[in-house]
Amino acid sequence: MVSMTKTPPRIRLAQLPTPLVFLERLTRKMGGPRIYVKRDDLTGSWLTGNKVRKLEFSIAEAQAQGCDTIITCGAVQSNHCRATVLACASLGMKVHLILRGEEPVQPDGNNLLDYVGGAHISYHARDVYKRHLCEIANSLKEKHAAEGHKAFFIPSGASDGIGCWGYIHAAEELKRDFATHGIEPTCIICATGSGGTQSGLVLGKALHGLSQDIVGINICDDEKWFRDKITDDMTEWRKLYHQSFDVESLPINIIDGHVGPGYGEATPDVFETIKMVARLEGLILDPVYTGKAFNGMLKEIAKGRFTSSDTIVFIHTGGIFGLLAQREKHDFKA
User: Which residues are catalytic?
Assistant: First the structure.
């Protein structure tokens, strides 16, 4: 365990602690390992999901800098954007979203809630978004400044040095969960989509003395991309908060090979896993993040990567609204 630096400003948004739940029927069906789920889909109601833990620190930093407006970005069905909009609405702050993709004819899922929450939204083609995000964000900062508002930019997923704090604290919460349940898990698994949850957990493991491997199942890009991104986030955290330990020595474990066609695109077996887990355990996964990662975890179990003697904790990072937006892609009645 390394020494803990002082925690930065924080706004309490999430309903914490979230439960740790044993999936008895699924464990029995798989023949082991023992599978637990950390229910971070229960961090709130409309604010549900992992992003809320990060936003507690990102929005607090914005307010500390005197900002009344948040600019952030993501896909059209971004859980992060929806959570940011509704968190800021509860705090009396404005939000401008930069969304990657075409404007839907009829908003649905997370995107519908963005509008309900009063967000200003700009849509940009994928190639324009990828090449010019910084320029777009800076232009919006200038626009809001001209209107008398000071804007703060939060990157996709609130995944940066500030956002790391969300899952640094979650790691401490997990440590208490394990003691309460009397378990010593083999590993902690999460869906990795922007890298911030895994960055925080890796740092949290070092800061709070967890013994478990932190394992990400990437739902887009590839292992190298996430190794670089997670290292960058942790390095930024170290510099921002003047930590002295070597973050580059911390292990980054990625299980690649379960991305499928790409970000936001799930294969039929992912939808079958979503349906199976819902019917066995009453647990709702989504096709973008948790369903894809959970399906990947089950495939790795079937291949023998984890055995009946192991105990796995899966971080349920939310995403139910993304499932609703893809309801036409699978026959859930069957």
Answer: 78
